[in-house]
Amino acid sequence: MEDRVRSLEIANAKLATSVEHLSSTVTILASTVQDLRDTMNQGRGALWIMMAAAGSIGAIIVTLAKKVLGIV
């Protein structure tokens, strides 16, 4: 009986260690996911700015071309 109790105590200690390791890993993973999400949002903002700039430059070029060519 004493051997079974000792065996259960060892198994419980192993399980507790595994749970602690899993908890720390999940915490690190959550932090990494948040960092990736922040990076994606920055990239999305940069893309919007580049698209707006490209559209503005295109509109200016078309307007200047129409004035130079005399197109109404």
Q: What is the structure about, briefly put?
A:
This protein has 1 helix and no strands.
Can you put this structure into words, describing what you see?
- By secondary structure, this protein is mainly α.
- Helices cover about 95% and strands about 0% of the residues.
- The protein contains 1 helix and no strands.
- It has one helix spanning about 1-70.
- The chain is rod-shaped and about 100 Å long.
- The model has no long low-confidence stretch (mean pLDDT about 95).
Please give the largest β-sheet: none
Mean pLDDT: 94
**Proportion of strand residues:** under 5%
Q: Which regions contain 5 or more consecutive residues with pLDDT less than 50?
A: none
| Strand segment count | 0
Residue share in helix: over 70%
Q: How many H/I helices?
A: 1
- Which geometry do the CA atoms define? rod-shaped
Helix- and strand-based class? mainly alpha
Distance between the termini: 99 Å
Radius of gyration: 31 Å
Q: What is the element string, with H for helices and E for strands?
A: H
